[in-house]
Specification:
Length: 268
């Protein structure tokens, strides 16, 4: 799959499928080498999907400079130029939802319909969990800390009652985190991305969004709490909001989630 030069970085991207065009923007730590990914999702048979590793992440460049949310939005718009898409549907998940907000505000003509999944506006609308404040932890310690944040049902009581299942979750999270872990600049890119994430704030500008917007998330998400999605919904005119049975990974936890996203994207 191809790499392309975009602005000041080299970006890895994949383009596959048929049907309406969809730009998919992934979250913190996103790496298209990890499977399953969006190309294995229930959306894949119905859309032409463009996905990529964002700056600092995956196989894309990891320059040791300050990244901004405007950089992330400009990267996405530049990638659309590379593939020749004037406009498309956009789906942003978690940190990708923050980037998608910035993209839609800076380039509204490029975004036909917008899906904001398990994300936050920052500012007065509330921020997602401050991952940049977590201390340096081993992969296993990090997974143990973040798993009950990602799904608030998995608290200490649940963990004690479901030791085997919890340890399996931790093992899977650790294995996923090792993808490319020893590559040069990996920690630099990860840190720079979290710094940009910490500065995210679109709240006051959200009323400027006038394309159809679908806001969705999990009822038990402690990373991007339901109140944050409700704030997005209240601030974006005409937006639709829906909650599903799950945490931060609700798209994979609730079988109704992806079909709802597909239905929204295929309207109009």
């Amino acid at each position: 799959m191809p790499f392309t030069q975009i602005r000041d970085i080299k970006v890895y991207y994949e383009l596959a499928g048929s049907g309406p065009r969809l730009l998919y923007i992934s979250g913190t730590g996103g790496d298209l080498r990890r499977r399953p990914n969006i190309f294995d999702s229930p959306l894949a048979p119905h859309f032409t999907i463009l996905a990529y590793d964002q700056r600092g992440l995956g196989q894309s460049s990891r320059p040791d400079i300050a990244y901004t949310m405007a950089d992330y939005a400009d990267d996405a718009a530049a990638l659309l130029d590379v593939v020749g898409w004037e406009s498309c549907g956009v789906m942003g998940v978690s940190f990708g939802g923050m980037v998608a907000q910035e993209l839609a505000l800076r380039y509204p003509e490029r975004v036909d319909r917008l899906v904001l999944a398990c994300t936050s506006s920052g500012g007065a609308g509330g921020s997602s969990f401050p991952l940049h404040t977590l201390p340096a932890l081993s992969p296993a310690e990090k997974a143990r800390r973040q798993t009950p944040i990602s799904d608030t049902r998995l608290d200490a009581v649940w963990q004690q009652a479901n030791v085997t299942e919890f340890e399996a979750m931790i093992g899977m999270a650790v294995a996923a985190s090792q993808m490319g872990a020893d590559e040069p600049g990996r920690q630099i890119g990860a840190r720079r991305q979290l710094e940009a994430r910490a500065a995210h704030d679109t709240f006051d500008r959200l009323p400027d969004l006038h394309m159809p917007v679908y806001i969705c998330g999990g009822r038990y998400d402690g990373m991007a709490r339901p109140a944050n999605l409700e704030a997005l919904h209240a601030q974006i005119p005409g937006s639709k909001m829906e909650f599903f049975e799950g945490g931060h990974g609700f798209l994979m936890q609730d079988p109704h989630a992806y079909p709802a996203v597909r239905s929204f994207l295929e309207q109009g």
